């Protein structure tokens, strides 16, 4: 960042110039502070010494105290905000409603309709010259129209335009409300971010936006820094600055070496205090944001995200990525997109449902396009043949406009078929359903950060949960201890302990814990004391209070800045140590940590008198057996407290950790209890009933973990399960070289229920192993909970990451998809319920939508071909479209979830979207509706004794006949909407209908509007009023849907064999890459073709060798089994060939970015919260149906998921001599590949 740009920006954006700042009474200006913050390392230290003397000098100029902070006086705070700015970045303006309207107008089908309507309008005003020419234009002008009729020709065009306006406004309003909700969600996340600040010598929690320059902030492990600042005092502080610098190594910070702390960076280790020097737009991250136009980098919420932008952004967006805590409404979205970009690599295909729906929408869209094209062609041909061939009429120039008018009419019919066929309601239904769920999940303590997480959660098959705080209450209390060779089952009376031991113990606990950890008196009468800070440390401080001592005087005697050196707790050390300088110049180090780890480093232990005695290895073993294991088996967490004295001269080498943290003297072992949350056992039972395996992953001792797991109901005595610790886990899953092997992993994870003493890497390895496993036919969908900074990788890797809202660090929240605001496991079960509900809501909508689609398209198509006019007019079709898209998605997507959702197993990733029951319903209701409509169309006039509406001339008045058809059609849809509420073949479709007021109001509302349209719609809607008797018949035919629904429910699925195949419709197309690859063939250049040819030849050669080996094997075995196989395989191989080739291609070209070539209707997929990463084929490459027939041809899935085809080739070369399934079965896909190529 050049100085020039900064000063330019500064002169433009800063109201107060330097002099006025000094007048403001502060001894340093914004500009000076900004220049200071641009320095790094020793330069900064030198600058502070030269300009301000030292840190105290800088604090004086900013009128603050390094120990007591600001006074917190309101006028002082306002003045600081005025001079130095507030800690927020102004959000980018949201899109206006008009912009959203303009975007909705870009829809291809709507544009076609608009054009057609305009042409129709223009032509309706055209009068052919010469009064009689009407006769000579033949059929075109047939049916003597009165003047009024001819003049009413414009109404149809106008009505179409009006309905287009309606559709556009509805779409724009939906987008607008979605964006509004999203911003609300974002600000909710931001308000929740608080930071610890010292004001008036008290540590308080402040919302990030209220921090001002001059504040003294307390920083600790896991924080995301909200402002720039200078370190005053730090303990073992390491910062991850990758969000600003791109360097992944953690940077060590110290007040005398590199004191500069920047906003948007993460504290990975240690703790400290910093002086806030820059906030909001003046902080380093704020400057970057403003240079980028305060968010030109935000890719708009509803806009297409082109892959090109993403790449451009990768560079300049990297820095602005972590800006979310700076209270900017867009910052969060920004970070979300960044998150998505980072996730592009690590996340799986973003969302199962989204992927399936896009595929389906594209398929239906294509089918609709074909149907509409055929309709138009047939109509035009029929008209031309009838007029110019059969009746041999000449083409008269003056008649041309009339003919064109006919063609336009045909064109409009074609377009309406397309409009009805394309399910643009799908994206709407998904959005509404997700947005509704997210809103309701807020009440269930789930704050959803990424919309699709809520739907993925419904498919979850495994939950890896932390123990502390999620399954337990996270309220630690010391209940047992071992001091001076005595094991006390309860906290002893202080009189029983030697004074020496007691003093050392109190000092060790009081000094060797974060000074921010405190126990405050209870807020309510008779309540429990409040625990602030690290809960384990609170348990130990509670022990000090139980021993009738106080920790505060000890801390006052040695304040935090007097601590000589602090080794903070991290997941590698599993201990924390603090060094203090004693009055005689020597040093004492206090240590505490996991008991088995600290005891290993002890060589002495205090006896009953408080004197150190030798502590031999065999004493350690005895201690573990007699003290630690019994405590752990009662579910207690055991912590060992120890100390060590060092001489003052020569001073030890503090950086040589291994020597320092050794030869300790053990003081005591404390057993801390963390009771199980009362609601957890029942929640776990519900999970297990719903087919979800719960695994506990904890850093605790294995015995403690097992005891808690039994209390929670994760494991039941007598079951076949694994409880292992991190060491054993790694021994089982890694080979001699120390690499994780998927095969070994597959032997461990299915039975694993408790993983104890696990490191964050173990957690990540476990999650990755379960996700990548191919043991089950469905890929496992894994949810993970985490609270620590080190849980970040596992949270990111999981399909759904849950971060703890209370105990969680900012880093964990950033990596997560859902934040549990009450840190409670039972909220996860609620999330599962909502997720399944989303899936079911979409299925309900699909079932309804596809029935309407099938019927409307067939009616329009056959009607047009037989009667040269669609029985459903353009405007009517648009109304039907509105009912079935917007209204139905609202009605069906807002069904509340029920407990019954947790009674079934998860659907899994590869389950077709349309189940066989749904297919049965769609076909069944479709048949009923078609029979009714066609009966009315062809014999309706005789039944009701009215004039036939068929073969009506252009611009003729609407007929009663066609009005009855339209009315019956709409009423059948209305009653079918009630049927669509159940998709698993339930009988009672009215069950719980009044629990959903939205549904009821929409059904009654649509009915009311339908009455208005029919009775008063007139020419625009091509309707003529009906009398009561006809209304009665229409309603009766509609009600028939409900009766027919019961008939369909009676037919068992097993009777309908063909449905099995129907359900698979989406399965084959779900191979991401199949379709795309075919579309993209043109883009592959010659070099790539050559490359491909090379590979084919290589395969061919390989196969030759393989076939020869097979022949030899067959001769050896001499059995006819292989021959039999070969006959079988030839049928399966044909299917396999194409798939393997496609898979092979997609693995080759996986890396190529493809330009977005979807028509606009399907753009919903590229909304930022809806990015699907479907570049990798995650569905097994060979359909499981084929594998059943072919016992030896199955491929062992390779751990390298994306390149199955390539891998299997490699398999063949390695295994040529062995008789592995992959190489010996000639049915292996590569064998058949040769013949196909």
UniProtKB/TrEMBL annotation:
<dbReference type="InterPro" id="IPR022141">
    <property type="entry name" value="ATP_Ca_trans_C"/>
</dbReference>
<feature type="transmembrane region" description="Helical">
    <location>
        <begin position="960"/>
        <end position="978"/>
    </location>
</feature>
<feature type="transmembrane region" description="Helical">
    <location>
        <begin position="367"/>
        <end position="385"/>
    </location>
</feature>
<keyword id="KW-0472">Membrane</keyword>
<feature type="region of interest" description="Disordered">
    <location>
        <begin position="1"/>
        <end position="23"/>
    </location>
</feature>
<feature type="domain" description="Cation-transporting P-type ATPase N-terminal">
    <location>
        <begin position="49"/>
        <end position="125"/>
    </location>
</feature>
<dbReference type="GO" id="GO:0030165">
    <property type="term" value="F:PDZ domain binding"/>
</dbReference>
<dbReference type="Pfam" id="PF12424">
    <property type="entry name" value="ATP_Ca_trans_C"/>
</dbReference>
<keyword id="KW-0112">Calmodulin-binding</keyword>
<dbReference type="GO" id="GO:0051480">
    <property type="term" value="P:regulation of cytosolic calcium ion concentration"/>
</dbReference>
<dbReference type="Pfam" id="PF00122">
    <property type="entry name" value="E1-E2_ATPase"/>
</dbReference>
<feature type="transmembrane region" description="Helical">
    <location>
        <begin position="922"/>
        <end position="940"/>
    </location>
</feature>
<dbReference type="GO" id="GO:0005524">
    <property type="term" value="F:ATP binding"/>
</dbReference>
<keyword id="KW-1133">Transmembrane helix</keyword>
<feature type="compositionally biased region" description="Low complexity">
    <location>
        <begin position="1218"/>
        <end position="1237"/>
    </location>
</feature>
<keyword id="KW-0106">Calcium</keyword>
<keyword id="KW-0109">Calcium transport</keyword>
<feature type="transmembrane region" description="Helical">
    <location>
        <begin position="845"/>
        <end position="866"/>
    </location>
</feature>
<dbReference type="InterPro" id="IPR018303">
    <property type="entry name" value="ATPase_P-typ_P_site"/>
</dbReference>
<dbReference type="GO" id="GO:0016887">
    <property type="term" value="F:ATP hydrolysis activity"/>
</dbReference>
<dbReference type="InterPro" id="IPR006068">
    <property type="entry name" value="ATPase_P-typ_cation-transptr_C"/>
</dbReference>
<dbReference type="GO" id="GO:0005516">
    <property type="term" value="F:calmodulin binding"/>
</dbReference>
<feature type="compositionally biased region" description="Polar residues">
    <location>
        <begin position="1192"/>
        <end position="1217"/>
    </location>
</feature>
<dbReference type="InterPro" id="IPR059000">
    <property type="entry name" value="ATPase_P-type_domA"/>
</dbReference>
<protein>
    <recommendedName>
        <fullName>Calcium-transporting ATPase</fullName>
        <ecNumber>7.2.2.10</ecNumber>
    </recommendedName>
</protein>
<dbReference type="GO" id="GO:0005388">
    <property type="term" value="F:P-type calcium transporter activity"/>
</dbReference>
<keyword id="KW-0460">Magnesium</keyword>
<feature type="transmembrane region" description="Helical">
    <location>
        <begin position="410"/>
        <end position="436"/>
    </location>
</feature>
<keyword id="KW-0067">ATP-binding</keyword>
<dbReference type="InterPro" id="IPR004014">
    <property type="entry name" value="ATPase_P-typ_cation-transptr_N"/>
</dbReference>
<dbReference type="InterPro" id="IPR036412">
    <property type="entry name" value="HAD-like_sf"/>
</dbReference>
<dbReference type="GO" id="GO:0098978">
    <property type="term" value="C:glutamatergic synapse"/>
</dbReference>
<dbReference type="Pfam" id="PF00689">
    <property type="entry name" value="Cation_ATPase_C"/>
</dbReference>
<dbReference type="InterPro" id="IPR006408">
    <property type="entry name" value="P-type_ATPase_IIB"/>
</dbReference>
<comment type="function">
    <text>Catalyzes the hydrolysis of ATP coupled with the transport of calcium.</text>
</comment>
<dbReference type="InterPro" id="IPR023299">
    <property type="entry name" value="ATPase_P-typ_cyto_dom_N"/>
</dbReference>
<dbReference type="GO" id="GO:0046872">
    <property type="term" value="F:metal ion binding"/>
</dbReference>
<dbReference type="InterPro" id="IPR001757">
    <property type="entry name" value="P_typ_ATPase"/>
</dbReference>
<keyword id="KW-0547">Nucleotide-binding</keyword>
<comment type="similarity">
    <text>Belongs to the cation transport ATPase (P-type) (TC 3.A.3) family. Type IIB subfamily.</text>
</comment>
<keyword id="KW-0597">Phosphoprotein</keyword>
<keyword id="KW-1003">Cell membrane</keyword>
